[in-house]
């Protein structure tokens, strides 16, 4: 499970993290990435248009993957 949340780092560089109950106890890896290094999400309308433009190819790839799962390997 991966949880991504953008937070502001205060001047004292201290964060208090409340971990959701869905995360099991034990070791985890925390990664800090400056938000300037994160690609901004495209607007929803552009995302829908991109999916619609590629729907046929994506459907064919899905069918191909499903056909491999039925090989009984």
Describe this structure in words.
The protein has helices at 44-53, 55-69. The protein is an all-alpha fold and 73 residues long.
Short structural summary:
The chain is an all-alpha fold. It has a domain at 40-69. The protein has helices at 44-53, 55-69.
Order of helices and strands: HH
Task: Provide the residue-averaged pLDDT.
Answer: 84
Q: Tell me the β content.
A: under 5%
Measured between the Cα atoms of the first and last residue, the distance is: 28 Å
Net shape:
flat
SSE layout:
Elements: H1 44-53, H2 55-69
Features:
single chain; 73 residues; mainly alpha; 0% strand; flat
